[in-house]
Prior knowledge:
- It is built from 5 helices and no strands.
- By secondary structure, the protein is an all-alpha fold.
- α3 (about 55-80) runs antiparallel to α4 and α4 packs antiparallel against α5 (about 120-145).
Amino acid sequence: MKIITFIIISFFIFLSTTITAEASEWYIEWLLQINSWVEAFDIELANIDTYYFENESLRNTYLEFTKVASLLKNEIIRKYENDEFEYYQTKWIIKNYKKFIYYSDQIFYFLKLREKWYRWKEIDNAVLESYQNIRVYYKRLKRLVYKND
């Protein structure tokens, strides 16, 4: 009888310890956002510098682009947190998003130089190259983000 009682008590102690350990592990994952924080932080590092354009059309394009890029970033983070992307798919999305934002920032930088010093051949070539890179990374990003839709 003592052995059966010992086994039953040991079993309940084991179960309660396991459940408590798993619950605290889940709480730690939630508290520290272990499953999503690194990727969210990594994508947040990609930003476009602030530029002031004299040309109203260029200024409006810049402002609208920064809004849309922020919406895209938030959508990527939301989809990742909802497990709509696989881990490696997310890594490629972040890599391509960062490159897309980098070359977008470059285009606005060169357009600002072009606005300030009119037209130099080097600046025009840099604008063209940046546009070509934007197109490449945007297409990759679009294909990766909407792959599952």
